[in-house]
Specification:
By secondary structure, the protein is of the alpha+beta class. The chain has a domain at 173-443 and 494-565: Cytochrome P450 (Cytochrome p450, Orthogonal Bundle). It has 22 helices and 13 strands. The strands form 5 sheets. Strands 1-2-9-6 form a 4-stranded mixed sheet. Strand 1 (138-143) and strand 2 (146-151) form a beta hairpin. The structure holds protoporphyrin IX containing FE (HEM). It is found in: Endoplasmic reticulum membrane; Microsome membrane.
Length: 575
């Protein structure tokens, strides 16, 4: 009896709220239908008519009750009331714990989805930035019953990244790379991370120099045809270079994407990168619906994935053959004895993965694909942001060129060595400052598996998801003076709280290849900047206006620069 009276008093208390929120939901859904967003989701003509009828009725004062679809609407309304009350009761604890978290007002059921639906990915990024500016460094968003807390203060980030119990990522899957290996958690992650770390461990990084130098030199030759002042998007060129480097490092095979620029392999890889971004860009809003819409392209994606996996599988099979025969081919094409090789330095990641008896063929292929797709893009983006900024801040570019001349002297054509890279102090500061302003991975996701108290008193409840927004942390004046300005010198010895600067993440899931990534970026940038002067006609505003955040931070309109060949060029004529 008590229960019944409790429920009825709850109903009475909540009734005005339910009525108001139901109406808001109807209006929001109807608007979305009318704007075509739901065309895949709500394909039935009846549904479209129902909802657009509502929109029309709202706008033009049509009497909605006189039309035939009033019956289903009333039915829906009646069903929604008890459903909403059940929802209200199950969410009570969560809502009480999180009631003090700042954030935009929410609609029941639709939560904050409506705040983001309909905006493109650039607008979405701007909305996110504005939310932090408005509500502060901790902002909550609801997507249905799922709570996302966006964090940008160094103290909360430290609490999260250093807590070993909180290292489960929210993963995103593409048709080429699944989320089974290094991006998962638990024992599988530990085992895969151990193997991958040994490949990119700082003691063995020198072995990659040949790979970096060779592919950077191909890049500078490819760019030659673009030099002379025309505006070009350098991203596809740098990406192809990073892809060749990555395939060589992980599989011991160069896929020659730079030399065969129209190759299917590169194109598919670029599509796969976009696809991961697409499914990710609106993580707490409409990704399920985007997935639904994308089902139409499922066949194409399957074909692409099949091709991509076919290339990778072929490389794996060749390697397995060498392992079985006791021989393998070294980089010069010579047959080397297996025992000699096992002690040698030429072990690529694939060799190590094959050696691990626990890994299946699918595991190996998955891991390779994940690394190729992720590692290629972030390194290419880092280089492109640096080049674009140097095209704006020409003094910094001059200073880098001076440094390069001091290191290479007369022999500006010489291949860089790892000791040259260590001497490129100013270039390193420029890369670090660029990654501060444009962190290639701007959002880190962590699934919260236990209630976690932050130092500022807020509680992240179990089953919520923390989103670390490093882009905003890096631009916080509490950690960096004059944070919007480009000032590489700040990395010449200045200090900031450790978790205020996290371009490679932090804690147990810090980037497994960050030293390798820095070396690769330095080698590529050194080669390009010794050969060309860069200018960025649109300035930083064109970059900033078009930023979009997904798995990675990219400008929607690419990286448009002008290249001018330097008088003393390292480019040979045999391109
Ligand atoms: C300069 C370029 C790079 C940047 C800025 C970068 C950034 C990052 C960041 C921020 C994370 C942490 C993600 C998180 O905590 O959720 C990460 C993780 C990771 N990165 Fe990098 N990365 C770079 C280069 C690379 C390269 C070249 C590879 C591949 C060889 C790579 C492989 C990985 C892997 C496998 C992880 C996951 C580690 C784990 O979860 O245990 N990264 N990277």
């Amino acid at each position: 009896m008590d229960n019944i009276s409790f429920i009825s008093s709850e109903i009475l208390k909540e009734l005005p709220h339910v009525l108001e929120s139901w109406w808001k939901i109807i209006v929001t859904v109807a608007n979305q239908v009318n704007s075509g967003l739901f065309t895949n989701f709500v394909s039935s003509r009846v549904w479209s008519e129902v909802a657009s009828g509502y929109v029309k009725s709202l706008g033009h004062g049509i009497n909605i009750y006189s039309t035939w679809w009033t019956v289903p609407i009333i039915l829906l309304f009646t069903v929604s009331l008890p459903l909403y009350l059940v929802h209200y009761r199950t969410q009570k604890r969560l809502r009480t714990i999180t009631s003090n978290l700042p954030g935009p007002s929410t609609l029941p059921i639709l939560s904050n989805v409506s705040a983001f639906t309909g905006c493109n990915f650039v607008q979405f990024f701007q909305e996110l930035v504005e939310a932090i500016n408005k509500y502060g460094p901790v902002v909550r968003f609801w997507k249905g019953d799922k709570l996302y807390v966006v964090l940008s203060n160094a103290e909360s980030i430290e609490t999260l990244l250093t807590n070993k119990a909180l290292n489960k990522k929210n993963t995103f899957v593409s048709s080429i790379a699944s989320s089974n290996g290094i991006v998962t958690s638990g024992d599988k992650w530990k085992n895969h991370r151990r193997i991958i770390s040994s490949t990119f461990n700082s003691n063995v990084l020198d072995q990659f120099m040949g790979n970096f130098v060779e592919n950077s030199s191909i890049l500078t030759r490819k760019l030659k045809s673009l030099a002379g002042g025309c505006i070009v998007d350098i991203y596809p060129f740098v990406c192809a270079c990073a892809l060749d480097v990555m395939c060589e490092a992980t599989m011991g095979t160069n896929v020659n994407s730079q030399m065969e620029g129209n190759g299917v392999f590169v194109k598919i890889l670029l599509c796969a990168m976009e696809e991961v971004g697409e499914t990710f860009k609106k993580p707490w809003t409409i990704e399920d619906w985007i997935h639904y819409g994308k089902k139409r392209n499922e066949k194409d994606k399957e074909i692409c994935a099949k091709y991509f996996h076919g290339v990778v599988d072929k490389v794996i099979e060749d390697k397995l053959e060498s392992h079985r025969n006791g021989f393998r081919q070294n980089r010069d094409g010579k047959q080397v004895e297996y025992l000699q090789w096992i002690r040698g330095k030429e072990m690529c990641l694939l060799d190590l993965l094959i050696q691990d008896a626990k890994l299946s063929l699918d595991d190996i292929r998955d891991e390779l694909c994940t690394l190729i797709v992720t590692g290629t893009r972030v390194t290419a983006l880092t280089c492109c942001y640096v080049l674009s900024l140097l095209g704006v801040y020409e003094e910094a570019q001059d200073r880098i060129f001076e440094e390069q001349k001091n290191i290479f002297g007369e022999d500006i054509l010489r291949a860089a060595t790892s000791s040259d890279l260590s001497s490129m102090k100013y270039l390193e500061q420029v890369i670090k400052e660029t990654m501060r302003l444009y962190p290639p991975v701007p959002l880190l996701f962590r699934e919260i598996e236990e209630d976690t108290q932050l130092e500022n008193g807020y509680i992240l409840p179990k089953d919520s998801c923390a989103v670390i927004f490093s882009y905003m942390t890096h631009r916080n004046s509490a950690y960096f003076s004059d944070p919007e300005s480009f000032s590489p010198e700040r990395f010449s010895g200045g200090s900031h709280p450790p978790y205020a600067y996290i371009p490679f993440g932090g804690g147990s899931r810090i980037c497994v290849a960050y030293k390798y990534g820095m070396m690769e970026a330095k080698t590529i940038l050194s080669a390009v900047l010794r050969a060309y002067r860069i200018r960025t006609p649109g300035g930083v505003t064109s970059l900033d206006r078009n930023l979009q955040a997904g798995v990675v931070l990219t400008p929607a309109n690419g990286f448009s620069v002008q290249l001018f060949q330097r008088p003393v060029s390292m480019i040979s004529n045999d391109s």
